[in-house]
Design brief:
heterodimer, A: alpha/beta, Rossmann fold, 5-stranded parallel beta sheet, B: alpha/beta, 4-stranded parallel beta sheet, 12 helices, 40% helix, globular
Amino acid sequence: MDPATIADSIHRLATEILNGSTCKKDQPLVLVGIHKRGVPLAERLARSLESQSGAPVPVGTLDITQYRDDLGSLRDLPTLIGSDIPFDIDGARVVLCDEVIFTGRSIRAALAELLDFGRPACVQLAVLVDRGGREFPIQPDFTAHTIHIAENERITVQFTEVDPVDGVFIESSASH
Amino acid sequence: MSPRKDLLDIASLQDEEIEFILANATPFKDLFKRSVKKVPTLKGRTMLTLFYEPSTRTLSSFEVAASRLSADVTRFDVDSSSVVKGESVVDTIDTLEAMRLDYIVVRHKQSGIPNLIAQNTRASVINAGDGWHAHPTQALLDAFTLREVTHNELPGKRILIVGDIQHSRVARSTSLLLRRLGMHVAYLAPGTLMPRDTPSEITRFDNWTDALDWNPHTVYLLRVQMERQADSLFPSVGEYHRLFGLTDTRLQILRDRKTWLMHPGPVNRGVEITDAGMNYDRSLINQQVENGIAVRMAVLYTLRPNPA
């Protein structure tokens, strides 16, 4: 997937978010990106939303490390980045942003952490890629691409904010 | 970073482990600004505090840190337990092992007891002060506090540690860590309280005039342990204050030079510090307390008990 396609996908996701609210109309819209690559996705979506609607959209971030269900068995402890939601989410429409949804476990963790920040009016989920393989009953509300890949393959999304290029890559884990 | 089992002293920590703990303390401290000051990191785990020596702030700091990580916290009450009836530390360890604890925080007047416990339990052991040997979490919180006020520019800065260096595990651990992080350390103490085995890189002073000429960035006062007076290691409290305390005159020099002031607590007002010293606007004492919780959370995050 080339950078132009990614830009187009983000524009389309933003349009869907603007038109697809399931909350009441007067709820303030905020985005919360999940580290690491959900954060650049949220920031790009916020720019697109602002250019389409004229209204600025605040962006927060979640570092879900301490809410992971496998933290006690990780062989390599991640350095914590910390979460930053510098606005009140009580009564807001929160759109969680992540680049790929796979098992749904990260989103479960993100929901648990988000609710420690307040009580949103509703929470929705926007992803760039849905690769299937869900282990939890969690589905995105806004999906740019659904890509079915084999079990031994993995998909990575790259954003220039943290990576060399913009792109979506599929690689077989055997060669990885 | 791979988790480690125990934290017994600064010397056994790798540089990258020190950096890992200090880096993680910042997001833990940010947590304190939230309405829910708690994360589920250690949910279902149990931390036991085993303090053979009295302590208020270190003990409660560990308890608050573990609570904010969602661990269950239990206190082994040494005063009222069978320890008073003569149970040996080794027998106590067997009892604790049967409780299937995950973290044991130990303070003991005898050096090496935390190591002994660590070798005999699958739980992670944290040394909260053993004899004159070590107090690693104090050192880490001091380093974290100094990194905050220097905006991560410790190398080359000078710290003057004042007081009973000889009997101080705080001085030992903190000076070791701060030197590893690039600071210059000097000691100011009466001859009777100055250790003989001081490393040559540490400058030694026996009076405030020379020590202040050295121009420290931070002055770190140690608590005067009153029982040392009984050992005739200093003549009287008044004499100690006059010669080695931070008198109001000396405080004025710190104020003029914008020198930072630290103290591990609890303080003896009128001995090593005055009321004015307690109200000094560059005193980091309260910041040390707050940072102590964040740093201990970071330590608990870094440790992992052996599998059952």
